[in-house]
Write a structure and sequence with these properties.
Helix content is about 65%, strand content about 0%. With about 160 residues, it is mostly helical. The protein has one domain. Helix 1 packs antiparallel against helix 2, helix 4 crosses helix 8 and helix 8 crosses helix 9. The radius of gyration is 16 Å and the shape is elongated. It starts with a helix and ends in a 10-residue tail after the last helix.
Length: about 160
């Protein structure tokens, strides 16, 4: 219960995360590997768009709108602000870094969290065929996020 109160005190956006971390089974059952696979799926969702100025501008606005802007590191903020004036990002290293920043911003949206938890639920329930369908992952994730926090088994 102490973990729940500490997470709630970090900010208004962390209330959902605080409720999810409150369950003792979250720390035991969510492997680092599953979390990496889930974040990679969110990154794949973001990488379907070309990394260009208008797309980066859209993610800047999304970050401000969802409150992710305040939680980004100063380096990420500066890179996003400077890169949104580019026409097209051609460097593979810069593109990779910007995709990670965009995925981090997407994790603050409902769709990003739904995909993330959809992957977690699909892997925990051995529903590997669901990983190929983005609509199925969003459905699983929304169903999971709609549960009351005390009924959430995986976090």
């Amino acid at each position: 219960m102490k973990l729940y109160i500490e997470c709630l005190s970090t900010g208004p956006g962390s209330m959902v995360l605080g409720a999810e971390l409150a369950s003792a089974s979250f720390n035991k059952s969510l492997d680092v590997g599953i979390a990496q696979v889930a974040f990679a799926k969110v990154r794949e969702l973001v990488s379907s768009q070309p990394v260009s100025g208008p797309v980066l501008e859209m993610f800047f606005r999304k970050a401000v709108r969802t409150g992710a802007w305040g939680r980004l590191s100063p380096v990420s903020k500066a890179l996003l602000l400077a890169s949104r004036r580019l026409v097209l990002v051609k460097s593979p290293v810069l593109r990779s870094i910007l995709l990670n920043i965009m995925a981090e911003i997407e994790m603050y949206t409902t769709r990003g969290r739904a995909v993330y938890y959809g992957v977690v639920v699909a892997l925990k329930k051995n529903m590997v065929e669901a990983l190929s369908s983005l609509n199925r992952l969003v459905t699983l994730g929304i169903a999971y996020l709609s549960l009351p926090p005390l009924w959430r088994v995986f976090g």
